[in-house]
Amino acid sequence: MRPSRVSLLLGTLAAGALSAQEPPALLQITVETIKPGSEAQYGAIEERLAEMCTRRGCPNDYLALESTTSPTQVWWFTMYATQADIARIALAYQRDADLLHELRELSTLKSALTDVPVNHIAARQPELGDSSPWRIGELQFAAVAVTPARHVPGPRIGTVFDEPEGSSRFTVIGAATRAEAEAAAASLGADALIFEVRPSWSKPANAWVAANPELWARR
Question: Which of 151, 171, 204, 212 has a C-alpha 20 to 30 A away from that of 21?
Answer without folding.
Answer: 151
